[in-house]
Structures are given as C-alpha cells and as structure tokens.
Design a protein that fits this description.
The complex is a heterodimer of chains A (294) and B (273).
Chain A lengths: L9 H7 L8 E10 L2 E11 L4 E5 L6 H8 L7 E6 L2 E2 L5 H8 L2 E4 L11 H12 L4 H14 L15 H12 L6 E5 L7 H18 L2 E5 L3 H7 L2 E6 L2 E6 L1 H6 L3 H8 L10 H11 L1 H9 L2
Parallel strand pairs in A: 3-8, 3-9, 6-7, 7-8
Antiparallel strand pairs in A: 1-2, 1-4, 4-5, 9-10
Helix pairs in contact in A: 4-5, 4-6, 5-6, 11-12
Chain B lengths: L1 H40 L6 H11 L4 H26 L5 H39 L2 H7 L4 H39 L4 H11 L2 H27 L5 H35 L5
The structure holds adenosine-5'-diphosphate and magnesium ion.
C-alpha cells in the first residue's frame, strides 16, 4: 500500500483541480428545516484547500444534513454552497456537473451498488465522466483498490465483504477520479480500532501529499486528534466550536467538555426518556450523588 | 373564530402537499420515460445488461404464474357461467362470454394485478432499500441520473413485458375455457369456434393490450416512485411496498373503468368498433 500511487490522466484531472487559490468550499447563510425541525441555522464558513476538517456533534444534530447540502444532494431553504467558487445548487446542469467532478463522497453506509462487483462500483464514476477505453479504466480501478488494500477483492459483491472492506471500496470509488475534495460521513462508525487507524491513514496521507481537502464527519476522538487540522462542533444548527484539536482539548466550553468526556449530564442532555428511565432505575439520589463527585 | 381559520389553513397545507407530491411524481414519470427512450441509443444512461436482466425478471420469470392462473380463471369462468346461460339459451354462447370478457377486461386486469404483486412489489422493495442505504444519493453525486440509471430500464422492461404477459394470460384463459366447455359441458369444437368467431373481434384484443400498456406505466411509476422516496429505516421499505401495491391497484382498476367508458363513448360515435 503506498499513498502516492497516482495515474496521470489529463481528461480526468483537468476538472478535478481547483482553479483558484480561493477556499475549496464556501458556505454562506445556509438554512435547512424539515417541517418544524430547524436543522441548520444560518451557517457560514470557509474551508481552505489541503486541510482535513472534522465536523463533530451529537447524533441527529444535522451533520449528514449539512453534508447533503454541501454535495448538492438536497436544496437548502436559503444560502449557498460554493465548491471552488462554483455554486453546487446552480440551475445550470453543466455547472453542477463541473462542481461535482471536484469531489468524491464516502457515505455513512458506504453506498456501494449491491448489483455490481467492487471493481464495477469503482469504475462507475470513471465510465460516467471520461471516454477512456475499458482497459485503462480497469487499470485505474485496480490501482485505486490496491491503494486502499482491496486489490484482491475486485470481483467480490458488496454483500460478500465486511463493513471495513465496504468502507475501503467506497473510498476507492470516492477517489476514483482524483478529486480535489473528499467528504467522509462517519468513515469509522462500526469499525475496529485497527481498521479505524487504516482509514485515518487513508484520509490523512493523500491530504498532505496531494493537497486534497478532506471534510470528515466523525465522533471518534482518537481519530479526530490524529487527522484533524481543524475541528468544528455542530449543535442546535450552529457551530459552537471551531479550532485546532489542541484548542478543542483545552476548550472550557461546557458543550465541548461534555462531548469530549462523554458525560451524560450536561447542556447536550441525554434523550428525555433515557434520563427518566435511569431516574426510575437508579433513583434521583444516585444521580445527584454522581454529579456531585468531581 | 380561530378554529375555522386553522381548519382552512390546514386544508390549504394538505392540498399544497398533494400538489407538491403530484408535481414531483409527474416530473419523476417524465424523467423515467425520457431516459428510458434515450437509453436505447445512449449506453451511458443505464447498462444494457440491466434492461435484459429486468426483462428476464419481469417477463420470462412471470410466465409460469401467468399461464397457470390464466388457465384456471378461464376454466372457472366457464364452469360457473355455463349453467346459467344454458337455462336461457344455447350453452355454447359461453364461448362468446369468455372470449370477450377475457380479452377486454379480465385478462389485462388480472395480469396487471398479478404483475403488480410480483414485479411492482419487487421494484419498491429494491429501490427502497437502495434509498435507505444512500445508493441513490451516491449515484446522484457521481453525476449519474438515478431515475435514468435505475427506473428507466425497469420502466422499459415492464412496458414491454406486461403486454406480453397479458397475451399469455389471455391465451391460457381461452384454452382453459375451451377445455372446460368442451369436456365438462359437451359443447362441440365446431360450435365453440363458431360462437367465438361471431362474438370476438380483433379490437377486443387490441383494446385489452392497449390497457395493459397503461397498467404497466402505472405500476412502474407508482412502485418506483414509492421506492425512491423511502426515508429512514428498513421498516419504512415494508410500509412503502404495501402502499405502492394499494395505490397501484386503485389506479389500475380506476383507469380500467375510465378507459372502458371512453371506449364505449368512442364506439357510439363510430370511431372504434
Ligand atoms: N429527509 C429527512 N426528512 C425529515 N427529517 C430529516 C431528514 N433527514 C434528517 N432529518 C432530521 O434532521 C435531523 C438531523 O439529522 P442528520 O443530519 O441525519 O443527523 P446526524 O447526521 O448529525 O446524526 C434529525 O432530527 C433527523 O430526524
Ligand atoms: Mg449522520
């Protein structure tokens, strides 16, 4: 496995390069609600090129929703998302396609097509976006799969391989066209610590070596400190923290402290039913006693 | 004063929502047809191989059930109506009753209902599972139109294969009816054929076939749309499948009624036979 395998392909790479020295991703005044549920509240931020950004926050706080707006899979109620200066929600299909070609996405559930083999899955974006002959595509697919350590599973179907292998195949597909930006939605969820380390390395290496911008949604604290250049914490539709992992560690913000410690008591709050249940089982006295001890 | 205003605004919201869903569904149907036709000439929209797989699944593999159920429906129709017909006239008239009702209504309708249960339910379940596991989202972000890639080949396959299944069902029902009539009620081969020729004409058959094309469009669009719009967990896939079948059946039977009315109207004007 070497991090710097890279195929020189003018057609495929021309579009994936970032044009300007400007930010890789710009989000302005992004707003999204589902019925009465105001998930994203007037978010604005820039992501520089060549860095790893980690977005964290409690389950259900809207991380995947933010991702869906950033990759143009859903329309925000207001605001805009620029990928290398191009509006991902543009009315022009040509512009949308141009913006799309600049990034790859590793989905939370890997999202490999079950009817296709691993190799066919990785070939899909290459076939769609280039006119390369099949033999070249086969070679690219093989190289990408070897890069993620899946060189021997080309002809396996997604339902025949483990969760960790699916994640790696999904990653190979996300980087098939050498995108300038890669989004990862909970890449380490459900994986063992060693596999998490492997995935972290696959995220970190290309970022530093090839100047790729990575946006990673994760809860995995060791991961965050290994890979992040900057961490953002989403809560109640807004970022309550943005800074380096060092600053995160030293933050005195009660939300951040609670999240880092995994404390069930605090401003984030456990789901109501859960705290009622624990109160019934343990009793309020036990709860008071626990929060009293330092 | 507050209650009626709330009622009106709630009603307005409901109507708005229906219009929204209807608009989305129409757009979805348009895309399915557009990409289905374009995909015949442009191999990038969906893999050719997928079309063959779906035609095999929707058509070839439906053959046994269509033949078996068609045969049984034709036979029981004759067994149950012949005694009543014989009470008022010649028993062989049943040949005409079977011919017309199978070709015009029973064949297309029952084939479509079987098809909805076998093929339509499969469409919703497959696509719903893909929606839940973000596969549809992934296609979209790779720049592959999900409706073109997933729905268009299913749509084409169903529109070609339901009429084929209907022909099979019709034939089996006519054979079943013939065998029941000649063997159970001793109607001679000659008189059965005679009556059939007098009652049945080509337009009965083509009208039935045209209806089956409409039914195929209804089943594919409803079932694929319900699959595409599944959100949440695997549980929702089951619910969506049930809803897709119920909506398909209602629309099939309702459109059958409407088409029959229109046909009658046109035949009164002498435009069709
Ligand atoms: N398609 C949708 N329709 C309605 N509500 C949704 C939809 N997607 C997400 N939500 C709601 O939005 C909130 C944020 O969800 P999500 O972005 O998946 O959270 P996270 O990824 O941070 O766990 C949740 O309350 C969820 O129920
Ligand atoms: Mg999520």
């Amino acid at each position: 496995m070497s991090g710097n395998v890279r195929i020189e392909l003018p057609q495929a790479r021309k579009d994936s390069h970032l044009r300007s020295g400007g930010p890789a991703i710009t989000v302005r005044n992004l707003d999204k609600s589902y019925d009465d549920n105001h998930v994203l509240d007037d978010l604005s931020f820039d992501f520089e090129r060549g860095k790893v950004y980690v977005i964290m926050g409690p389950s259900g706080c809207g991380k995947s929703t933010l991702l869906r707006q950033m990759i143009g899979a859903e329309h925000p109620d207001a605001g805009e998302v620029l990928i290398d200066g191009i509006d991902i929600h543009s009315n022009s299909r040509r512009l949308r396609d141009e913006a799309r070609r600049k990034f790859g996405v590793l989905f939370q559930s890997s999202a490999l097509l079950n009817g296709l083999t691993v190799a066919e899955n990785v070939a899909l974006p290459i076939q769609r976006h280039t006119d390369l002959p099949q033999s070249t595509i086969d070679l690219m697919v093989k190289l990408k799969l070897e890069l993620v350590g899946m060189g021997n599973a080309l002809d396996k179907y997604p339902y025949e391989i483990s969760g960790g292998m699916k994640k790696r195949a999904g990653l190979a597909r996300a980087i098939a066209l050498d995108p300038a930006i890669v989004f990862y939605d909970e890449p380490s969820a459900g994986l063992d610590p060693v596999m998490i380390g492997v995935i972290d390395k696959l995220i970190k290496d290309p970022t530093s070596k090839l100047g790729i911008t990575s946006v990673v949604i994760t809860h995995e604290m060791p991961s965050i400190f290994r890979i992040a250049d900057e961490v953002l914490m989403l809560w109640n539709g807004r970022f309550v923290f943005r800074g380096t992992p060092e600053a995160l560690r030293n933050s005195t913000d009660p939300l951040v402290r609670q999240f880092l410690k995994g404390d069930p008591e605090g401003p984030i709050g456990a789901p109501r039913q859960l705290s009622e249940l624990s109160e019934r089982l343990i009793g309020p006295s036990a709860r008071d006693a626990r929060s009293a001890t330092p | 004063m507050a209650a009626p205003t709330k009622l009106i605004s709630d009603l307005g919201a409901l109507v708005n929502r229906y219009i929204e869903v209807l608009g989305a569904a129409v757009k979805f149907g348009g895309a399915a047809i557009w990409y289905g036709v374009r995909g015949i000439f442009n191999r990038r929209i969906y893999p050719r191989h997928d079309l063959i797989v779906h035609m095999d699944y929707t058509g070839a593999r439906s053959t046994p059930i269509m033949v078996l159920l068609g045969f049984l429906v034709g036979a029981s129709l004759v067994i149950q109506t012949t005694p009543s017909i014989a009470r008022y006239g010649p028993a062989e008239l049943v040949a005409g009753v079977v011919g017309v009702s199978v070709l015009r209504t029973l064949g297309p309708l029952l084939a479509a209902i079987i098809f909805a249960g076998r093929v339509g339910a499969g469409f919703t379940a497959e696509l719903g599972t893909m929606a839940v596991s973000e596969e549809i989202l992934a296609l979209d972000t790779m720049g592959i139109h999900p409706v073109g890639y997933l729905v268009a080949p299913r749509f084409l396959a169903a529109v070609l294969m339901l009429p084929a299944c209907t022909v099979l069902f019709d034939l089996s029902a006519l054979i079943g009816g013939y065998l029941a009539g000649t063997m159970q009620f001793n109607i001679s081969h000659e008189s059965w054929m005679d009556v059939t020729k007098q009652f049945v004409n080509l337009s009965n058959f083509t009208f039935g076939l045209a209806k089956s094309v409409v039914f195929a469009i209804i089943i594919t669009l409803v079932c694929c749309y319900k699959g595409f719009t599944v959100r949440g967990s695997g549980m929702e896939v089951g619910r969506a499948t049930m809803q897709a079948i119920v909506i398909s059946l209602i629309l099939i039977i309702f459109s059958d009624f409407v088409m029959s009315m229109v046909y009658n109207f046109l035949s009164k004007l002498g435009i069709v036979e």
